[in-house]
Write a structure and sequence with these properties.
With about 160 residues, the chain is an alpha+beta fold. The protein has helices at about 5-10, 35-50, 80-85, 105-120, and strands at about 15-20, 25-30, 55-65, 65-75, 95-100, 125-130, 135-140, 140-145. The model has no long low-confidence stretch (mean pLDDT about 85).
């Protein structure tokens, strides 16, 4: 399957799972707990109030070298958003891609997602732990704070 088919498939529209595609087009589904949704909402709100312009995106589908990955939250500048606005999935990653850790996530998976997001244009990738602890990364590694959103809290 491709992402357009996933989006249009009537049986997949209202599933309570996060859906992604792997590099061969197979669907990957991950159920999320309430804390995961709560952190997504808090991160989206904090991004909205901490960034000057641009767009905050929830469940942002990104076309990576290993299939469609879905960032839990993302932020795209106005210019980048205009480039992807009409796309089914982002052909270039938003500048900030955020993942909230779920029970099923591994460090290897998160490291792979970071690499995939950076390869397609992300400037920062943020990881939120199951306790709300934020870690910020750029292509050189972990940052003490976000460069793009320096006032974003390390704990939410």
């Amino acid at each position: 399957m491709n992402w357009q088919q996933v989006c249009e498939h009537p049986d997949l529209r209202n599933l309570p799972f996060k859906i992604e595609l792997n590099e061969t087009g197979h669907i990957l589904m991950s159920p999320v707990k309430v804390y995961h949704s709560a952190f997504q909402g808090k991160i989206a709100a904090l991004l909205y109030f901490n960034m000057d312009g641009g767009e905050v995106l929830a469940e942002c589908a990104i076309n990576t070298g290993m299939g469609t990955k879905v960032a839990d939250v993302a932020w795209a500048s106005s210019d980048r958003f205009e480039r992807v606005r009409a796309e089914v999935q982002c052909s270039i990653a938003p500048e900030i891609c955020v993942e909230v850790i779920s029970d099923s996530n591994t460090d290897q998976e998160m490291n792979q997602k970071k690499a995939l997001y950076f390869a397609i244009g992300a400037l920062e990738v943020w990881i939120c732990s199951e306790h709300g602890c934020m870690k910020f990364y750029d292509t050189d590694g972990e940052l003490a704070a976000s460069i793009l959103a320096p006032n974003f809290p390390r704990q939410i």
